[in-house]
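Quick log. Single chain, no ligands specified.
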Amino acid sequence: MKRLVAILSVLAAAVLARPADAQLPEGPLGKWWKRPVVVRMLNLSSEQQGRLEDIFSRRRREFVDLKADVERRQIDVEELVAAKDSDPKKVAASVDALEQSRLRLRKAATMMFLEQKDVLSAAQWQQILDRRDEWRKERQMGRRGVGGDGPERPAPGTGRQRPPRPSERRYGEPPADR
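-> predicted structure:
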């Protein structure tokens, strides 16, 4: 039984620590339509920025609820794994529920990004596609600074220092202040 608990603990830790890249839409982080460097790069009009903000605003409460569900389910898994006499079936069911919750959040983020895509011209969308690798690297660099592993980095495109936000790296919800 101890060996099974140890194996389940390792499995749960691996699931909980997996990279966040697979959870994020392929685009810039945050309220990218407000970032001056992205606005200039895409030549976004103020009308486009307003429509993008409206899409985000309509979906914001949904993201709050979905993120909270993921966090609650993550706590459930951690508590089950930490228990002395973990029931493997309960742990497995809890991990499945966590993954389904993460999937719902990922789907919502992807659908929002898809809705935002419709606001852009074909040329603007192609520019986003051309920059995906750059934004993926920004996300990866930002994650390396979490938890004291490295110095705080400026927010991409801003040059200013600020503490990293978990929402930028874990679940795909655009932060509210960019």
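The chain is about 65% helix and 0% strand.
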